[in-house]
UniProtKB/TrEMBL annotation:
SUPFAM superfamilies noted in UniProt: Cytochrome P450
Transmembrane segments: 7-28
Organism: Acacia crassicarpa
Location in or out of the cell: Membrane
Name of the protein this chain belongs to: Cytochrome P450
Family membership: Belongs to the cytochrome P450 family.
Keyword Signal: no
Pfam families for the chain: p450 (PF00067)
A GO term from the CC aspect: membrane
Species classification: Eukaryota, Viridiplantae, Streptophyta, Embryophyta, Tracheophyta
Keyword Membrane: yes
Alphabetical list of PANTHER family matching this protein: CYTOCHROME P450 FAMILY 72 PROTEIN (PTHR24282:SF149), CYTOCHROME P450 FAMILY MEMBER (PTHR24282)
Any one GO molecular function term: monooxygenase activity
Top-level taxon: Eukaryota
Length: 524
C-alpha cells in the first residue's frame, strides 16, 4: 500500500511540475515579456489563450484576392487587359497589420499563439537597433526556426551568434567580383535556352506565357550551375520540385504556428513537411557525395571557389551544416531573384514607356550582342532604377524577423531577452509619410539621384535586409537581374494578358498567386 501511495504521489508531482513548466513556458514568461514591452509604451490588439491574435489574422486573410484598377486608387475586381494593377498592396496582403497600425501606430505587440511579437514599421527604431547593437546579438525567432527546420535547417539564414559569424566568413567569398564574373556565361546560356523555348511556343501559335513559372525554373538552373557546379539538371529539378512542395505545405496551408501543440492540429501537413525535408536532405547529400568523388578522381573542371567548393573546403562545416547550407542556397538563391524579375516584367508590361526606355538604354550600352559583356552592365543605370523601384513596391522578402538573445537597450527602451520582432518591409516601402503621396505609384526616376529613392529615412528602404545580416547574395542577384532582363527585352515586347489576375500573396516570399501571364511579341 505504502509503495502505491508513493508511486501515486510521484506521478502527481511529475504531472504538477509538467503543468507548471508548461504554464511558465506558454503563459507566464510571454506575459512578463509583454508587460515589460507595455511599460515601454507599446499597445496592441488583445490576445486570447491559446491562439493569441491568430483568429483575427486568419479571418482577414481570406480577403486577399484580385486588385486591379484603372486609375491607381479604385479597387475593382475586373481584369481587363487595359487595366493597371494597383500597387497599393499592404492592406491586401497584411490587412490585420494595416488595421492594427491605424489603431496602435507603427510599433505594437501582437501574439502568434503564445508568442508575443513586437511589430515594427518604424525606421528610426531600426536604425538604432542595427547601429548600436551587434548583428550576432539578435537571433531568429525560435518558433520560426523550428517550424521551418525542414526548409532551412541551420543554414546561414537561420544560424545565430558565433556560428553565424563562422558560416558567413566561409560563404561570403563565393560572391566575390571574380566569382560573379565567372558565372556570366552560365547565366546567359540558361536565359537563352528559356528564350528558345518561348520562341518555339510563339511560333506554334501560343504567344501567352506564364513567365513566373519559366523565370523561376531558369533562376533555379542558374543557381544549380553557378553555385553548385551541377550539370545533372534532373537532380537539381528534383530538389527544386520538393522545395516548392515544402514551401506550399508550410506556407499555403492552414497551420497554427506559435500555438501549443500547433503541429498536432494539422498532423498530416506536419508529417508531409518532415518527409519532404528528409527527401531533400538525401538528394543534397548525394550531390555533395558526387562532388567529393569527382574531386577525389582529380576532375579539375569543377570551380573550387564556387559556393559548394568553398563550403566543402578544409572540412570547416559538419555534414549537417553542409546540407543545411545547400538547402538554404538552393531555395534563397533562386526564388527571390526570380520574383524580382517577374514583378519587373509585370510593371514593364503595364508601363510601355519604361519598357522602351530600357530597350533604348540596352541598345546604347550593351549593343545587339547576344553574349552580354559583364563589364558593361554597370552602365545600365535606368535598369537599376527600375530594379530598385520594383523591389520597393513588391519586395520579394516582405518581412524580416529577429529575436533578442539578451536584454538589449535600444535608445530608452529595453527589449527583453526572448522578444520576437516582425519588421514589416512592405509597410515601410508603401508608407506615404516616408515616400510622399505617390508612394503606391511606379516611378523609377525617384532613384535617379538618390540610392534611397528619396525616402525620408535611410532605413525606410530595406529590400535586402539591414545591418550585418544584409543579404549575402545581393551582388549575384543584381548581375543576374541585368543579364536576364537585357536578353529578354532585346528579344520581346511584353503585354499584360487579359487572363492575368493581380493577386500578390505571401508564401514566405511575395509572389503572384496565379502566376504572371503575359503576351509576348518577338522583336526580330
Ligand atoms: C532580389 C533578390 C534578393 C532579395 C530581395 C533578398 C532579400 C534578402 C533579405 C531581406 C535578407 C535578410 C533576411 C534577414 O535579415 O533575416 C536576405 C538574406 C539572405 N539572402 Fe537574400 N535576397 C535576394 C537574393 C539572394 C540570393 C541570390 C542569394 C543566394 C545566392 C541570397 C541568399 C541570402 C542568404 C543566405 C541570406 C542570409 C544572410 C545572413 O543572415 O547572413 N539572397 N536576403
Amino acid at each position: 500500500m505504502e509503495i502505491i501511495r508513493v508511486i501515486v504521489g510521484l506521478v502527481l508531482f511529475s504531472f504538477m511540475s509538467l503543468v507548471l513548466k508548461l504554464a511558465f513556458l506558454w503563459w507566464v514568461t510571454p506575459v512578463l515579456t509583454h508587460l515589460k514591452l507595455k511599460r515601454c509604451g507599446f499597445g496592441g490588439p488583445t490576445p486570447s489563450f491559446p491562439l493569441g491574435n491568430i483568429k483575427e489574422m486568419k479571418k482577414q486573410n481570406t480577403t486577399n484576392t484580385v486588385i486591379i484598377d484603372d486609375d491607381e486608387d479604385d479597387h475593382l475586381s475586373s481584369s481587363s487587359s487595359s487595366s493597371k494593377p494597383s500597387h497599393n498592396i499592404h492592406s491586401t496582403i497584411f490587412p490585420y497589420f494595416a488595421r492594427w497600425q491605424n489603431s496602435h501606430g507603427k510599433m505594437f505587440v501582437y501574439w502568434l499563439g503564445t508568442e508575443p511579437f513586437l511589430y515594427i514599421a518604424e525606421p528610426e527604431f531600426l536604425k538604432n537597433m542595427s547601429t548600436k547593437v551587434l548583428a550576432k546579438r539578435w537571433g531568429k525567432p525560435n518558433v520560426f526556426r523550428n517550424d521551418r527546420d525542414a526548409m532551412f535547417g541551420s543554414g546561414l539564414l537561420m544560424v545565430e551568434g558565433n556560428d553565424w559569424v563562422r558560416h558567413r566568413h566561409i560563404i561570403a567569398p563565393a560572391f566575390s567580383p571574380l566569382n560573379l564574373k565567372a558565372m556570366t556565361c552560365m547565366m546567359v546560356g540558361s536565359t537563352n535556352q528559356m528564350i528558345e523555348r518561348w520562341c518555339s511556343k510563339i511560333y506554334s501559335g501560343n504567344s501567352e506565357i506564364d513567365v513566373e513559372r519559366e523565370v523561376i525554373a531558369t533562376a533555379g538552373e542558374i543557381i544549380a550551375r553557378t553555385s553548385f557546379g551541377m550539370r545533372d539538371h534532373d537532380k537539381a529539378r528534383q530538389v527544386f520540385d520538393k522545395l516548392r512542395a515544402l514551401q506550399m505545405t508550410l506556407f499555403k496551408t492552414n497551420r497554427y504556428v506559435g500555438v501549443p501543440f500547433g503541429s498536432y492540429l494539422n498532423v498530416e501537413k506536419t508529417l508531409e513537411a518532415k518527409k519532404l525535408g528528409k527527401e531533400i536532405d538525401s538528394l543534397l547529400l548525394s550531390i555533395i557525395e558526387s562532388r567529393k568523388e569527382s574531386k577525389n578522381k582529380g576532375q579539375t573542371y569543377q570551380n573550387e571557389q564556387d559556393l559548394l567548393g568553398l563550403l566543402m573546403k578544409e572540412n570547416k562545416l559538419t555534414m549537417r551544416e553542409l546540407v543545411d547550407e545547400c538547402k538554404t542556397f538552393f531555395f534563397g538563391g533562386h526564388e527571390t531573384t526570380a520574383l524580382a524579375i517577374t514583378w519587373t516584367l509585370l510593371l514593364l508590361a503595364t508601363h510601355e514607356d519604361w519598357q522602351n526606355q530600357l530597350r533604348d538604354e540596352i541598345k546604347e550600352v550593351v549593343g545587339d550582342n547576344d553574349l552580354v559583356d559583364v563589364n558593361l552592365l554597370a552602365g545600365l543605370r535606368k535598369m537599376k532604377w527600375v530594379m530598385n523601384e520594383v523591389l520597393r513596391l513588391y519586395p520579394p522578402a516582405p518581412n524580416v524577423q529577429r529575436q533578442a538573445r539578451e536584454d538589449i537597450k535600444v535608445d530608452n527602451i529595453i527589449v527583453p531577452n526572448g522578444t520576437n520582432m516582425w519588421i514589416d518591409v512592405v509597410a515601410m516601402h508603401h508608407d506615404r509619410e516616408l515616400w510622399g503621396e505617390d508612394a503606391d505609384e511606379f516611378r523609377p526616376e525617384r532613384f535617379e539621384d538618390d540610392v534611397n529613392g528619396g525616402c525620408r529615412h535611410k532605413m525606410g528602404y530595406l529590400p535586402f535586409g539591414f545591418g550585418g545580416r544584409m543579404c549575402v547574395g545581393r551582388n549575384l542577384s543584381f548581375m543576374e537581374y541585368k543579364i536576364v532582363l537585357t536578353l529578354l527585352l532585346s528579344r520581346f515586347r511584353f503585354k499584360l494578358s487579359p487572363r492575368y489576375r493581380h493577386s500578390p500573396s505571401i508564401m514566405l516570399s511575395l509572389r503572384p498567386a496565379h502566376g504572371l501571364i503575359l503576351t509576348l511579341e518577338p522583336l526580330q
